[in-house]
Amino acid sequence: MIGLVHYLVVSALLFGLGVLGVLLQRNLLVTYMSLELMLNAANLALVAFSRFNRGLDGQVMVFFVITVAAAEVAVGLALIVALFRRKQTVGVDDLTDMKL
Amino acid sequence: MSQTFPWFILFLPLGAAVLITLFTHERRELSARLSIAAVVVSFWLSVLLFTDPRAADPGLTLSVNWLNVGGLSVDFGLLLDRLSLLMLLVVTAVAGAIHIYSYEYMRSDRSFSAYFAALSFFTFAMLGVVLSDNFLQMFMFWELVGVSSYLLIGFWHDRPAAADAGKKAFLTNRVGDAGFLAGIILLWAMLGSVNFDFLAQKLAEDPRRLGAFSTVAGLLIFCGAMAKSAQVPLHVWLPDAMEGPTPVSALIHAATMVAAGVFMLCRVFFLFGATPQWPAGLTWLDGISALEVIAWIGGITALMAAVIAIQQNDIKRILAYSTLSQLGYMVMAVGLGGRTSAMYHLTTHAFFKSLLFLGAGAVIYRLHHEQDIWRMGALRHKMPLTFGTFLLATLALCGVPPLSGYFSKDALLGRAYEQNVPLFLLGLFTAALTTFYMFRLIFVAFLGRPRSPHIEEVREVPGVMVLPMLFLAVPAALLGFWAVNHYLAEQFSSIPPEPVPPWYEQVFAPFQHLPLVAFLGLGAIACGFFAAWGIYGKASKDPLPEKLGGLARAMRNRFYFDELYARIIAVTQELLADFADWFDRWILAGVGVRGAHGTTEFFARLLRLVQTGNLRTYAILFGAGVVILLYALLTR
Amino acid sequence: MNALLTLPEIAVVALGLGLLLLDLWTPPDQKRQLGYIAVAGLGLILAATFTLHGSNPQYAFGQIYVMDGLALFFKRFFLLGALFVLVMSTDFADRFPAGIGEYYALILFALAGMMWAASANDYSLLFVAIELITISFYVLNSFRRNQADSLEAGAKYLILGALASAFLVYGIAFVYGGSGTLSFHPTGPNSTDLSLSPIFQLGLAMVLVGLGFKIAAFPFQIWAPDVYQGSPTPTTAFLAIGSKAAGFVLLLRVLFSAAPDVATHWRPWWMAVCAITILYGNLGAVPQRNVKRLLGYSSIAHAGYMLLGVAAMSAAGAAAILYYLGGYLFTLAAAFTVICLAFRKSDTGDLAGLAGLHHRSPFLAATLTLAMVSLAGIPPLAGFFGKFLLLKAVVQRGITNPAYYWLVAVALFGIVVSLYFYLNVVRAIYWSKTRTETAPIEIPRLTRFSLYGCIAGMLYLGLLPNTFLNWAQEAVKALHLN
User: Fold this and answer.
1) Which of B379, B413, C212, C379 is positioned for an S-S bond with C217, CB 3.0–4.6 A?
2) A67 to each of A39, A61, C125, C127, C246, how far by Cα in Å?
3) Which helix (H) or strand (E) holds B569?
């Protein structure tokens, strides 16, 4: 029988993968994909809790998250494209003009 | 009239400052006149108020409610009693003289109007401190004094040194003010009010009310005075503040801002009546009261500054260290419980020291901003009026009878003699040093031969500058006969004071009261004077640095014993002076300028490790932050 | 169910959409004028909020949205802040390559997000409101898309903001899992026990990560200096004023309204976070040579000061935060407006660019000096009184818990240090020798009025704190603190 804990473990694994991707990837696009992965991990957790709590709030929340994620992707990709046009790179390590 | 006059006295200078800033900025003459008129009217009203018998007794508080929020209520109040009336008179008189003096001194300056606006604003802030009836209001004006002194010290925009000096003054004051603010908040939290009368009443009812925090609260409040009145170790700003225009030094560093600390201590003296007690972690300090700490800090400041003054060559710096030293006297007196003598000395000092600064200003004005005394000399004949007033003020500072300083210094030393003999001896030694360095200044700068070719062209300064000096010379000479201590004793002491004797008896009163103190005081003056005469009477350059040559000359001198005595004193003094100067420059000033630079570098280096500009580093730090936070919160 | 309660937000969004439409028919050389329409519209909405009352909480959308004193206070706060920022943007308009109309509209959308955040009574509205703010800011930050700095700032804010959002959502999932509801006020027999359950606490901690990012509190402060420096100046101002305040209203609601027990349980950590934030911000600002970056660090420090009010956990502390934010609004609006005007050509924000400002415009020089002095907390300006109230709230707690005295000592130390770098700015204005620009600065009339407003606000809050403090105290009654 698959229980709440199984869902949560998968969700935590997804989230952890996302975090590692953000911390370790050098490409802005891949970093951004990792961030989306983290959001989906949260969605999985929300649906799982919703199912086992016998409430619908969590599933409604998931729709909010999906909508917001879509908006975030639209804006984020546009920004990355603009950055690429200006600097001809999407390397995370190339963004170090401002420091100290 | 006593209902409305205080408001006018306080707000007239502010009105002048606002008018100048907003409207008459372009019209130099009008701005200056507005500013002078406001202060002079304030002074006149203060005189009227002072002579009104109803104003001082039993005292008066005029207040409007200012803050009233859920359980706490603070008034904006003006507190009139003998203490504040006396201080009002001092501040407006000195400020008035200096406003008039500045009219000529600053005439060629580009920002003439701005200068007067700042000067008036400063006067307003200072009057606010004097009249405040509660801690919060006082703190606001206290900080305004700091801000306006920052503007005035750094007034000459094209001098980076002036900017540094202004900043140093402000920062050092801020360190003290942080303590002051903490003390105020502590008192408010513990006693529920910031009103002086209310707090005094509460503490009089039950001296244990502050519990374990009584000494801490007293010392925190003292922190404010320590910075404003330039006590060790927060004194470093005052000598540097001489970068400002000389009239500003006369106002800020002789009579008002630096006196604010002493005044404040007298105002909140009730705090020190609380039973001394330390909080749990500091019980090993038991037995030390806040007043003792204050007295010793004052005494050390007095001695150290006097020793340093001996080896200074800049005329304003000598006066600056002298101010430090005299402030140390006053703080010491407060620490010994002698509010009356502290305020007495504050009053006389305000007049003669601002007179000294104005005299120095006149010299500097005529010598095209030359401040080295070894490039002056023989000014006595060129500027007789300046020399006369300067000499008078010097004698008053040294404490020569029957000038004002004689009475106040005697009262102060008498207090020390009765309370704490080591501090009395320290004060006595300082008095000798005071005479020594002041007469060194007189001998080198005003007597002897001309030491620079410019001296020939020097003339007396114009009447606009001489008049304020003559005006200040009157109280500097005669204030002693008007028994300020009796006036204040009515308020400060529970025993009714003895009736004031006629003036001719007053001169001898100290000899009847405590003859030993009076004679020792005179002896100290004599020692200092003869030492200075012996060493500097005919010197063409400072002989102290070349010990041997000086020693040889001393042997041939007919004042053989005096010379030898002076030499021994001088050598030890020089060692002391060197040490004190070293201590001052490396340890204490290090915190100010050098230290600030060093710390900047240090933080820049640390910061480069963190704020690398690299997004991945940021993300990793963010992740680490999350881990730390989750760990911390969840294992709790 | 009363959807009309959210009328102010709807009006703001409608205004934004209207601007976007108008933008289509406006010739390019007149697009700057759209800003005046936006300013007028916001002014009307702000005036209209004074017909609303918040003394009795009213709810809408099934208790998701609440209209109480706190919400109303912050709505007015955000509206006023956005007004100043819009005025600033009209000065900034000619420095954008294109799309000033969209810039105005995005400010309004972010404003709507902040206003909803002020009324959030449920984690779902909290999330949507925060995301509306954040996503608008992604664009606002990188709006000068021909400038590498602006894009870099945008990218940094994008990645770290999205990271914070991900933690926030994940945290909300666990909060939901722990309490079974998304509401701030879980009802039911075992709701108090649940609030101490580990899964709920884990979720709440992650929600705090998201909010900590918004207010730039340690350890999530790392983005602030870079983003403040690189973003267009009006955006920076809005980040500093609006976004931070939105973070604080949500923090207050989540901590004291939704989970007071947990908040008390974590008390020592608030104190630690608060102390480190103050130190980091103030010490980090010491070596800075760029005004905007310096204000970035200073904003961290100010977040730290306001966290004093959170750490105090009392009504007085919360009211002090509101009061502090009020003073902060006027002060920062003044500072950024001056920066906006002074760096018209270069927009680098380098301290050297301020040299000779008092010759170019004595009024601007004096305003910036006042703002710096207020930020440093010198009476009688607004900044002093805010700090005073915060410290007092903490000291009052200290009587029962002496650890609070250490917090006071750290805060006082920070205040002393801060004077050093604020005076550096003042020094750069008045005492610098090398001047890069000498042309006198022309101040448009509307900007002049907005600066007068800021100065009046700084002085009013500092000199006559009564009225405003009463408002703040009324507002925090919604939190039911004592």
Assistant:
1) C212
2) 11, 10, 13, 12, 22
3) helix B560-582
Instruction: State whether residue B73 is helix, strand or coil.
Output: strand
Closest residue by Cα to residue B469 from B119, B94, B88:
B94
User: Are B313 and B241 contacting, i.e. CB atoms less than 8 angstroms apart?
Assistant: no
- What pLDDT was estimated at residue B597? 54
Q: Is C113 on the interface with A (CB under 8 A)?
A: no
Total residues belonging to chain C: 482
Please name the member of A22, A45, A71 whose beta carbon is closest to the beta carbon of C177.
A45
Shortest CA distance from B614: residue in chain C: C156
Question: pLDDT tens digit string along C152-197?
Answer: 899 999 999 999 999 999 999 999 988 888 888 766 544 556 556 8
Compute the nearest-CA separation of B599 from chain A (Å).
Answer: 15
Question: Which chains would you list as touching B if contact means 3+ CB atom pairs under 8 Å?
Answer: A, C
The secondary structure of residue B107, as a DSSP letter, is T
Distance from C-alpha of C222 to C-alpha of C303, rounded to nearest angstrom: 13
Output the DSSP codes for B216-264: HHHHHHHHHHHHHTT-TTS-THHHHGGGS-HHHHHIIIIISHHHHHHHH
> How far off is chain A from B589, nearest CA to CA, in Å?
28
pLDDT in tens, C460-482: 998 888 889 888 988 998 888 87
**Rg (alpha carbons) of chain A, rounded to whole number:** 17
Which residue of chain B comes nearest to A19, CA vs CA? B623
Chain A residues with CB under 8 Å of B616 CB are: 23-24, 26, 92-93
Q: Are B536 and B439 in contact (CB under 8 A)?
A: yes
- Which helix (DSSP H) or strand (DSSP E) does residue B417 occupy? helix B404-419
* Residues across chain A: 100
Look at strands B60-69 and C65-67 and give their pairing: unpaired
The Cα–Cα gap between C48 and A99 comes to 44
pTM of the model: 0.86
C315-339 residue pLDDT tens: 889 999 999 999 999 999 999 999 9
Q: Which residues are CB-neighbours of B4 under 8 A, at least 6 positions away? A: none
The closest of B127, B297, B274, B289 to B186, measured between CA atoms, is B274
Residue C275 has pLDDT above 90, yes or no: yes
Q: How far apart are CA B277 and CA B208, in angstroms?
A: 9
Q: Can you read off the two tokens belonging to residue C479?
A: 């939190």
**C363 within 8 A of C442, measured Cβ to Cβ:** no
Question: Which residue, among A30, A35, B613, has the nearest Cα to C164 in the 3D structure?
Answer: A35
Domain ranges (residues) in chain A: 4-92
Is residue B591 scored above 50 in pLDDT?
Answer: no
How do strand B72-80 and strand B60-69 relate by DSSP bridges? antiparallel
Q: What is the ipTM of this complex?
A: 0.96
Q: What is the pLDDT of residue B562?
A: 36
B399 Rama class: left (phi>0) / alpha (psi -120 to 50) / beta: left
Contact B162, B258 (CB under 8 A): no
Query: Measured between CB atoms, which of C158, C159, C169 is closest to A42?
Result: C169
Is the pLDDT assigned to residue B447 strictly greater than 80?
Answer: yes
Enumerate the residues of chain C whose CB falls inside 8 A of the CB of residue B622. 160, 163-164, 219-220, 222
Whether the pLDDT of residue B557 is over 50: the answer is no
CA pair distance C245, C239, nearest whole angstrom: 9
The CATH code for residues A4-92 is 1.10.287.3510
